[in-house]
Amino acid sequence: MSKNGYPTNDPELRSWIESANNPAGDFPIQNLPMGVFSKTGSEDPPRVCVAIGDQALDLSECWSAGLFAGTPVESENVFETSALNEFLAMGHSAWSSVRQRVSTLLRHDTPTLRDDAELRATALNPIADITLHMPVRIGDYTDFYASIHHATNVGSMFRPDNPLLPNYKRLPVGYHGRASSVIVSGEPVRRPHGQLRPDESAEPVFGPSRLLDYEFEMGFFTGPGNEIGERISMDEAMSRIFGMVIVNDWSARDVQKWEYQPLGPFNAKNFATSISPWVVSLDALSPFMEAPKPRGPEDPPVLDYLKPVGESAIAIRLETLIQSKQMRERGMDPMILSRGDFRDMYWTIDQMLTHHTSTGCNMRPGDMLASGTVSGAAEDSRGCMLELTWRGSRPIRLPTGEERKFLEDGDVVVMRAYCERDGAARIGFGECRGEIVPAK
Ligand code: CA
To answer: What are the catalytic residues?
Structure first.
């Protein structure tokens, strides 16, 4: 049993799918992340699936075989569709029932699917043979700025005397992002054009961004939201969140620098945001939740509506890697750029959701909220190149001898995230990957 009492998190659980029992794997039976897939090369419409080891379990086929009888999804096949939104709208008790049922079906001692060769052949597909699509139809996307280390580093580059603005420790700062350009891992990212002013004294010019960057963030999807005019409280917030993905908030720093005042990010961020294809549920992450770190004695008190109410800091380890075109041509593996931990965030996901709805702003199933760049106190835990190279003043040397201040065409950025703790099964997010292709 895990500390929250869900038997689906029991580290002793084993699956009859052997690849799921690898202790170093991302997708053990305790994870069961959901995605949307089609068989590569087939004309079949996309469907909802769950990752288990190196296989994807087609939940629509399972539904058709009657395997969800007695659960809240029994009356309608919400998995025969190209996005998780309908399922997200059903709420936490439905999510947990489905998770419990899938866990039972995949346990080593449950014969239903294990011993039904015909059903197994239609319901299981090797992940290597499928194409993963956007898991959710994202209605609205909001990006926060919740790492105090990131905010302090970036602030000190632009305002050395006053890196943190007075509101920072009072509320989770965010901006409304662009949902239409959120793309799934693997899709290429075209270098954007923009209006730039490389020299402060010169006239602005229009052309391809020269200072292209990534930002390692974690994002989460809301389920049943709130009506306009209603609020979500801290007590309710965690149960309204279905699960999380890795987010790469690609950023054109030169565009950003010229455009951001007074209304914040706009074209510098709207050309592409990549997400990992598997949505890891908060139920799967529960063994890795802990109380937020106490604020320092010099920090102002948190106003009541944002006061922590439980374990909503999540220990997720993050890694960013880079592989240049030359590295690929020479058969070199991606090189690690940084390692961070999501538990280092100043604001937690329930505080982000609560603050966002505190005006009565309505959330809908499938809205995405992202954390902002995850950076820690250590230099090697900084979650973007702007910080790692300190605005390009300390270039990174690749194993080919190439140098990077920002991203070049042909660079592939790979982000990975996973949770590990004694007494719990390892939970992985898979990866979020994108290649920079030249401006057009
Ligand atoms: Ca961001």
So the answer is: 150
